[in-house]
């Protein structure tokens, strides 16, 4: 199996966490988003959407992190990250909710506060931030309430649902998404790193790579100016 990945991506972080947690033998092909590697003809032949991650396993070519994670646990026969029975459908419910609701506003903060403000020197779009705030409040209040009486989304053990839901917090130190106002979410996020060491390690790698990239980008902007 081959995974096309860039550790700076929260979606790639999700898949890399599953690979490491399950101890899978997967070749990682670093694909630099910032250098346009996902727009090359070779990559677009794998994923016409031009987005990471992409998994290739013989004749199987999969994009979308959630689909890849589910494929990997199926191939591994894992029932820890993806339980069976009714719990599996509860997990899928939260994964779909993450995709359709919870993960949507975080990229808006990143685009406005990091790409627009830090790299391009633009003022954040107040209207777009207001819309992101509205979505954050709506979704985070629901998740925070759900986590008020349980350790993880499904109970005492983390699952793919936790990984999917935690991904938007990956860029919080840079994008300043206001999750810190939700104590149960912040407690859950800390405990996920303790329960899944791979989640903590991939987070550290993401932070290091992002800090290096942003420092280089700011230097380039300064030289041009």
Description:
This protein is an alpha+beta fold. Helix content is 60%, strand content 7%. Strands 2-1-3-4 form a four-stranded mixed beta sheet, covered by helices on one side. Helix 1 links the parallel strand 1 and strand 2. Helix 1 packs parallel to helix 3, helix 5 packs across helix 6 (126-146) and helix 9 (183-195) crosses helix 10 (197-224). The termini are far apart. The mean pLDDT is 93.
Strand content: 5-15%
> Taking strands numbered 1, 2, ... along the chain, how are they ordered across the largest sheet?
2-1-3-4
Mean pLDDT: 93
Tell me the number of helical segments per DSSP (H or I, 4 or more residues long).
10
> What pattern of helices and strands is seen along the backbone?
EHEHEEHHHHHHHH
The shape is globular
Secondary-structure blueprint:
Elements: E1 2-5, H1 10-22, E2 27-30, H2 41-46, E3 54-57, E4 60-63, H3 65-76, H4 86-102, H5 105-119, H6 126-146, H7 160-166, H8 172-175, H9 183-195, H10 197-224
Parallel strand pairs: 1-2
Antiparallel strand pairs: 1-3, 3-4
Helix pairs in contact: 1-3, 1-10, 4-7, 5-6, 9-10
Features:
globular; alpha+beta; single chain; 225 residues; 7% strand
Brief sketch in words of this structure:
This protein has 225 residues and is of the alpha+beta class. It contains ten helices and four strands.
